[in-house]
Amino acid sequence: DPEEADFFFAPTYLTCYMWPVHGWADGPWYHAPIPNPRPMHAANFIDEVGRWVNATMPYWSRRGGRDHIFLWPHDEGACYMPSWIYNNAIFLTHWGRLDADHVSGSGWPPDNYSQPVVYPRFQPLDWRRMYKGHLCYTPGKDALIPAFKASNSYHRSPLVGVPPVKKDVLLYFRGDIGMYREWWYSRGIRQSLYRLAMEDKWREKYNIMIGFPHDLPQGYSEWLVRAKFCLAKFCLVAPGDGWSARMEDAVLHACVPVIIMDNVHAVYESILDIDQFSIRVAEKQLADLPHILQSVPHEKIRRMQRRMARVWHRYFWASGPYAAANIERLHSTLYKESSRTIHNPKFQGNGTFRGLGHLKPLPSWPYHDDAFSTIMQWLYSRIPDTR
Fold first, then answer.
1. Among candidate residues 368, 189, 381, the one with its CA nearest the CA of residue 270
2. Which residue of 46, 78, 135, 374 could cross-link 91, Cys pair, CB 3.0 to 4.6 Å?
């Protein structure tokens, strides 16, 4: 009964529209007979959806759209959503940019939402007027949710009970460094860090590993586990074309996130106190990154690890039979493996697990507070604000 509903979800699937539908099909196009920029078509599409909902159903106008939810997980999130929809509805997104006077940071030209388009017949005014003046994400109104990570992407994490390995890497980042992208890709952060690491020999001096996939040894999950400072672990969280799922990678591997993206929130930053288990470094401090990490007290990092262990399950998706079955298979295998290791005499009394209770194998998987449950809990807390 919609009269009893607390919220209304608008299943627009705009990310699927932008790719692969818009990338491969001849249509539909919205308000201009040209393929790009894709965000223009998406914004016009959502504008038509909103007007249809408002004209056809009584529930938008009942509360001004405050109880309507839109999922918008594309690279730059809700930056270019029509203002009349964005300013009222709830958006679930991955991109937490906070400045109002924003321009596109995508290094992929078809997704640059700052490109002007005017088409006399269908769009006589520049389409950018639709989104000017609003944020990409509003803390409290919107939520930054984790990207989906299959269980095999963190299958070597100590948080799932994998026996400890040699911890000998200060900071780890493997991926697109942006050397062949537009200069504004990743705000220049990845490119600058890569240059600094190469020119100043960070790997030789500090065992900081930053590079393209072909620059570094194979095995992403295994190397995230090895990233460390003493017994603490650091993993870089930097933007890409917009959001990048590095926060999820870090937390799911008990690797303390090092967040470098000024005026941008990370996943759950308005819901959880992520300062308790992460470190922020200003973009202007890139050259000092090795010394900043080396100066963090050992006990502070240990506390961050323990706090991360209390919330890591909120960063994976375990709801639904398919995800739950895959995770159950992973857990069953790893629990047996790690239990054998813990009871192995060579680990007894040597302090391997002392003070690191979150590295011990889980007797059961924490399904009840996964990403989906976290979003439901947050929405429940938002009910009074929608009335």
1. 381
2. 78
